[in-house]
Amino acid sequence: MKSRWWKEAVAYQIYPRSFYDSNGDGIGDLKGIIEKLDYLKEFGVDVLWVNPIYQSPNDDNGYDISDFYAIMDEFGTMDDFENLLKEVHNRGMKIIPDLVVNHTSDEHEWFMESRSSKDSPYRDYYIWHPGKPDGSLPNNWESFFGGSVWQYDEQTEEYYMHIFSKKQPDLNWENAEVRDKLYEMVNWWLDKGIDGFRVDAITHIKKIDGFPDLPNPQNRKFVQSNAGHANQPGIDVFLSEFVERTVKNYDVMTVGEAGGATFENARHWVDQDKGYFDMIFQFEHLGLWKADDGSLDIDALRTAMSKWQTGLEGKGWNALFLENHDQPRSVSTWGNDKDLRKTSAKALATFYFLMQGTPFIYQGQEIGMTNVRFDSIDEYSDSGIVNLYEYETGNGRTHEEMMKYIWKNGRDNSRTPMQWSSEPQAGFTTGTPWFGVNPNYPDINVEESVNNPDSIYHYYKKLIELRKDLPALIYGKYELIAKEHSQVYAYLRKYKEECYAVIVNLLDEETDFYLQDGLTCENLLLSNYSREDVLGSAMHLQPFEARVYKVMNQSN
Ligand code: GLC
Ligand code: CA
């Protein structure tokens, strides 16, 4: 039986390659994580989600696994992992590795066997298909990393499917033997004593029958292919079997990555009685920029967030996040990473952290790390970016256009090494880092943030403490207020007799705000401006000002 301990937890995401390098080879590693556990404990987080650490040729930084039962050499050994697990538990924290089961590396032995012959017992572990009679690709589906999802393989003269890079062939979940092997592997890790998983790309394990061409009204070479493989009918059969045979039998936490899922079709995934995951990462709240001026569409944001907040009340649980290793830095996209970097980072923190759900903080978010701009594509690492760049420039887009796109949206923005101090290479390594450090590290780093009481780090710490002190901020009901305000996102958290108001100006301009009739501010608990004595219902908010109040609710 599950105890649902994860509702009270605060989670922190570690991208191991960029977190801390313990041996000077320029690559973050497991011993490096161990060295920083005291920092994380002191910060106040409870659960560590660690991106893939398995053996991998690193085409997609570990999301291309060649051996599920071994640790990537660059990260250390299985002994190092056991040590990490022990050290995490010794500090009263928990750890959830990434679980990647939609695909493997093309260097996994299953795939090497599979591609060797049409008669191989492993042939059906992956998705093979002949070309169309005229010799063209099996269909028009586009891979997430640009180009077709199909890769021709000369040895057997067929195509295999890869919805990510061509070094990440998709596993064939229709094959029961594949599923058996995966569950066996999942249980092997659970038996080691890990505390759950973040489950990668899980919406994509079911492909529609027959792999038909998708509608292509604009007559493009390939079409975005979610309609062929994201949350498709039949996936529930796989998911419920996965749960029954693995995680259900352990007191662990699972968070599924649910790209392409909407509230309407994925809410039942997190149903507390019949769901498949304790929570999911859904993406409906990201990328809501207005078409005309690129500013944040606050109405759309309110709708997206509130749908999940109210929709899951008493029925399921949310995972709260703004950043991860696939997203640009929030302070650069949502905030103002120039003169209001600290203020806007704190506002964003307040906005998402106090909703109902388990909040996740991505490494570096707690010190307000920003996007990065490298001039040449050669300075980038993410195969998603590099493949897309090659594909698009090969099809007529200019270098300038693509770099602009990458600076704004590229996943590498969040993968630059963690900025620990103002020492060379941001204190991340004593060697040459595997990927460029953001040149702003002399100003933005952990050492500075820990020593400066006014830092983003200390603000997050207060948020964590508030959430631990006040059950209302964990269990309380979410209620959207000021539904029409053009730039303030405001909501209440209500629990028993208590009520709290979270008020965040999400834009770079001042504004007036009125706390609705029936609510009286009792006590200002937190703000990102120095404020005293601001208890009236009418308030004038500075750019990106955030306030958290305890309020008296006469209408209760
Ligand atoms: C997920 C991961 C991403 C990876 C992809 C393929 O979206 O978060 O980093 O590239 O799956 O595994
Ligand atoms: Ca290292």
Q: What keywords describe this structure?
A:
binds calcium ion, globular, 5-stranded antiparallel sheet, 8-stranded parallel sheet, 556 residues, 22 strands, alpha/beta, 16 helices, binds alpha-D-glucopyranose
Describe the structure.
It is a single chain. This protein is α/β, with parallel strands linked by helices. The protein is built from 16 helices and 22 strands. It has helices at residues 30-35, 37-43, 78-90, 109-116, 176-191, 226-229, 235-245, 263-266, 298-311, 330-333, 341-353, 383-394, 399-409, 446-451, 456-469, 471-475; strands spanning 11-14, 47-50, 54-55, 67-71, 94-100, 128-129, 141-142, 150-153, 158-161, 196-200, 223-224, 253-257, 279-281, 319-320, 358-362, 477-481, 488-495, 498-505, 511-514, 519-527, 538-541, 546-553. The strands form 6 sheets. Strands 13-12-10-5-2-1-15-14 form an 8-stranded parallel sheet, with helices on one face. A 5-stranded antiparallel sheet has the order 16-17-18-22-20. Strands 6-9-8 form a 3-stranded antiparallel sheet, with no helix packed on it. Helix 11 packs parallel to helix 15 (456-469) and helix 12 packs antiparallel against helix 13 (399-409). The longest helix has 16 residues, at 176-191. It is globular. The mean pLDDT is 96. The chain binds alpha-D-glucopyranose and calcium ion (CA). Alpha-D-glucopyranose binds at residues 60, 63, 100, 164, 200-201, 257, 325-326. Calcium ion is lined by residues 21-23, 25, 27, 29.
